[in-house]
Amino acid sequence: MGDSQGVAALPVTFADIQAAHAAIMPHIIHTPCLKSRTLSDILGAEVWLKFENLQFTAAYKERGALNTLLSLTQAQRTKGVIAASAGNHAQGIAYHGTRLGIPTTIVMPRYTPVVKVQQTESHGATIVLHGDNFDEAYARARELEIERGLTFVHPFDNPLVIAGQGTVAVEMLNDAPKIDTLIVPIGGGGLISGMSIAARAMRPDVEVVGVQAALYPSMAAKMTGEALPCGGDSIAEGISVKEPGTITQGIVRQLVKDILLVDESKLEQATAMLLNIEKTVVEGAGAAGLAALLAYPERFKGRVVGLPLTGGNIDTRLLANVLLRDLARAGRLARLRIRLNDRPGQLFGVARIFDDMQVNIVEVYHQRVFTNLSAKGIYADIECETRDRDHLDRLIETLKENGYEVSSVEIA
User: Fold this and answer.
1) What is the structure's pLDDT at 115?
2) What is the model's pTM?
3) Which single residue of 14, 17, 201, 393 has CA 20 to 30 Å from 341?
């Protein structure tokens, strides 16, 4: 194996990635890369999953972080390092920095999920919460870098970080040599840059496809020259980056064939599927590859697809919401609004239909006062569990046949 034509001119070579792999392997987990028979059957492609959520810090980011820390001089190690991160890069720096005896300071946006702040602190880092987004946290970190004489470790626009992240592809293509397509989440672009360089050198025929949250199409915008807006609350915080790296842009432009955008519903569906089918917890950014498969099934039909599950640091409350919303979309959890007449036994009559249909009632909200109906008009919101969408449809039809006015409270 070696660099193919064109790759040697890039700021990171395959030799750099090989050196990074040799340096970090004693200190990270060679995570499994396994075929998912169930996802393959559902999606019409042979799907291989790389479980980077099984790293100690639950994300691939510690690969690039560790490779950078190992390159520091003794003077730099003594003074310490600083980073700006929404979470996973922070944890990689904090964990390996503490393990190597290097003081670490992490600047995080104020609204970073609590689980990521707590886990980063638990690894021994000093946390500075600043700004409403990554860009503001980044600016503060660069100020502290100068004020305190620290070494800044960029989360993606750093050749040593890119080389470290590229080791994910080295392992995937060695462990699953049949892979002909890699679908890689893009935030700042560090992972896809490293993986595309490794793939080009090891298997030039492998297609590398990027995927971004539709709310943050920053790299796609750079590649097409379109003015695509970036902003909003995405469950894929790890790739919610408004400005991709300068180094990474050049690599992506040369080596990545396509960048796909996925909406929030597909990210939620993918996160839920990975838990329900693979019994593995993956954060929104980590599920982006599967979300692309769900959104563009014809694009990958018949292909042998490798998906890096890049991280598993998802807030438990958010995960619970994602799972419940997934049940709602599948028709297994529903909220029905039923208009009732102001007569005794109306709610009992409705409950009897639910019982006859073997539908479990989870919650009942019976409203008489705060309604736009007349003074005698009332309604009940009933949250219920059904077997599937067909079961729910039959329940609604039966209620209507019995004279009830019914509407379903849908989710986005």
Assistant:
1) 72
2) 0.89
3) 393
